[in-house]
Amino acid sequence: MIHVRGRVSRSKDFISNMPDEILLMILSLMPLKDAIATGILSKRWISVWCNLIHLSIDGDERLEKIMMNPVLHDTVRSMYIKKVNNVIKKHKGPLVQEFRICFNLDCGNNSAIDYWLQFAMNKKVQTLELDLMNHVKFRMPANCYDFPLHFLTENSRIFLELHYLKKLVLKGVNVREAILRNLLTTSPHLETLCTHDSGFMAHVLVGGEALKLKHFEIKGCSNIRSIYLYEFDLVSFTYKGPAIDLRLGHLPKMKELDICQGAEGLQNNIFSQIASCVSYIQVLSLNILQMERVMLNSIPELPNVKKLRLTIGAYNDNCLLRFTYIANACPSLENFTIQLLWGSPIWRKRKARHFSTPTRPYNNLCLLELMGYYGRMSDFELVAHIIENAVALKQIVIDPRCQGRIGNTPLMKLKKNLKIEETARSYAQSQLKSVTPEGVKLVIL
């Protein structure tokens, strides 16, 4: 029983008596399928979820499992499309702040996806995500959904204008160059744009002071040839794909840069490509997949880089010390993360090399993280060198797990992987405890 202003209420369902605004706040903390399921509780709950402003519609585990059978692809897609359409038809609220689709869909589902985009446009969506590559590693561009410039109706064309859009994430969606220009023109509030696995985008030219775009990400776009960004307040940029002609013009707000140009690594002269931004960057991530191709003779001063992440293809037990030249170019460096990629650790018997003292010690470096440590001489001498020259070091984190993957799958089978991890962990304990200075915390995961 509940006391209400001196009276005794026998109602136990005090949650249902709350205002709709409170109930919507509660439902917004649940997965959408659970929020919809509350409709069976009572008449009071039937339509509460229909006013949610966050609609994230994933394929449930049952559909994803059936999807693994190629014979059932079309049937499962139809089930998912019906599920999304039911949500859209029952939604009653005037606005949808976030609309997210995540399922394996392609150009054969164009009409359904067009309908969903019209819904998002009518509901003044602010965050829109189309992830059509769920559990798919690759899809031919001709089979991907094309992001539209307009919709065709019986009487006319309706142009896709997302005036309220702030964030757009497109995965497995073709974004042609004209569409990209139109998006940036008709979405005056767009701050975040991510495009993955777009097949028909070759030359990206984005610039102009009127742009509000702050975060730009391009991944897995295999046909891309050039990117030129200039004269707007971009804060972070990520590019992961083939070696290209990358030019960054005047971008005075640039703080975070993450670049991976395929197997070319730094051979594509990345530092000359980002030269106009080096004095602004605070977080820098570089992928160096083939060490033998890398030239490290002309690294510019990176005065404001506080976080540096290097992903290195360490497939052989080759010396890694030369990559510390990049860290040495960062006088403000505080966090240094090194990820070593290998499928099976090749071990060479040799003595440790003593690298020449850097032009400056790592005076501000507090945290060193090394992922993929196996205990090879190349691993050990790299950590020992940094320990010796990092006068402010407070913590070392060693992750012995294999970092080599295809998609989200480890390269090695589980049993072999676990055995290698145990060996690597043992090497890390025996090698690094004795060289870790007093007062520096050593963490071996």
Task: Describe this structure as you would to a colleague.
This protein is an alpha/beta fold and 445 residues long. Among the domains are: 52 residues, no CATH class; 140 residues, no CATH class. 23% of the residues lie in helices and 25% in strands. A 14-stranded parallel β-sheet has the order 3-4-5-9-11-13-15-17-18-19-20-21-22-25, with helices on one face. The chain has a three-stranded parallel β-sheet with strand order 12-14-16. Strands 1-2 form a two-stranded antiparallel sheet. The chain is globular. The N terminus is likely disordered.
Uncertain runs: 1-11, 406-410
How large is the count of helical segments? 10
- For the terminal residues, how far apart are their CA atoms? 51 Å
Average pLDDT, rounded to a whole number, is 84
Strand content: 15-25%
The percent range for helix content is 10-25%
Which shape, going by the Cα principal axes? globular
Radius of gyration in whole Å, from Cα?
Answer: 26 Å
How many beta-strand elements? 25
Structural class: alpha/beta
Please summarize the sheet with the most strands. 14 strands, parallel
* Strand arrangement, major sheet: 3-4-5-9-11-13-15-17-18-19-20-21-22-25
Domain F-box: 12-66
Organism: Lactuca sativa
InterPro entries: At1g61320/At1g61330-like, F-box-like_dom_sf, F-box_AtFBL13-like, F-box_dom, LRR_At1g61320_AtMIF1, LRR_dom_sf
Protein name: F-box domain-containing protein
